[in-house]
Design a protein that fits this description.
Elements: E1 2-5, E2 8-11, H1 22-26, E3 29-37, E4 40-41, H2 44-57, H3 69-79, E5 85-92, E6 110-117, H4 120-129, E7 131-137, H5 152-163, E8 168-172, E9 178-181, E10 185-189, E11 195-197, H6 208-219, E12 224-226, H7 231-236, E13 239-244, E14 248-255, E15 258-259, H8 267-279
Parallel strand pairs: 7-8, 7-14, 11-12
Antiparallel strand pairs: 1-2, 1-6, 3-4, 3-5, 5-6, 8-9, 10-11, 10-13, 13-14, 14-15
Helix pairs in contact: 6-8
Bound molecules: N-(5'-phosphopyridoxyl)-D-alanine (PDD).
Residues 33, 180, 183-185, 205, 207-210, 243-246 line the site of N-(5'-phosphopyridoxyl)-D-alanine.
Length: 281
Amino acid sequence: RIAYVNGRYVVHANASVHIEDRGYQFADGVYEVCEVARGFIVDMPRHLARLNRSLTELSITWPVARNVLPLILREVVNRNHVVDGLVYVQVTRGVASRDFVFPSADTKPSLVVTARKADPAAGAKRAETGIAVITVPENRWDRVDIKTVGLLPNVLAKQKAKEAGAQEAWFVDTEGNVKEGGSSNAWIVTRDGVLVTRPADHGILRGITRTTMFEVAAKLGLKIEERGFSVTEAKAAREAFISSATTIAMPVVAIDGDPVANGHPGSVTLSLRQAFFDIAE
Ligand code: PDD
């Protein structure tokens, strides 16, 4: 495998950044994960626009010219012969002696790009059974709209889910409303067939898959309501699902051990999933 690290394509096993990288010391960095499907990097312009937003919010400068990054992503995907899988991009504020305040302006941000293959059949199989989620209290900061590599609450929540035999954890606010998953956005389908997902303010990450799903839903003639929903409403909903670059639309069939509807993947979710792949490019 080949990785891109600060201007070089290197053997993945030997790829490294300096021990005083601020990503390592302070989680002072941002990232993107794009799906690769049938050789295409899905929604790349949107992912790069969100990366630009994350960088801007944190006053981290672009590590390379903005129009060069797509070429690097493409190159890493090609060099690793990834047809289906994902590509990962990480930018940190760079390498400097440990100090909380920003380093001098001439410090170059670090850029790492990796890619790996995934079996598309595995996702399809998972979608046939659906996934279980658990709920956990929201304990993250109030700027999770910035896609930073500071993911410790997400790590702990998803580990807890795994230990409970589930595949995702939903962060729930103090009012009992679902915010989002540890690495995905959360949705339900009401009894009337309306899609519901929480507004994308500073309290969740505005998922690229979520944004594209709005277009997919419109194509299918489905209505979307952007509003909060509670864990109770989700359990009683017709369907529930999650969305992310790595899962696309994935049915949720159980929440905290209680079945969603009849406990089987819903038809609306599965048609969204199919339609997403049909229009993805
Ligand atoms: N995670 N919310 C959170 C907290 C996420 O980490 C992600 C993505 C999403 C969905 O965003 P998108 O549709 O753009 O993938 C929502 C990626 C997949 C990850 O960290 O691996």
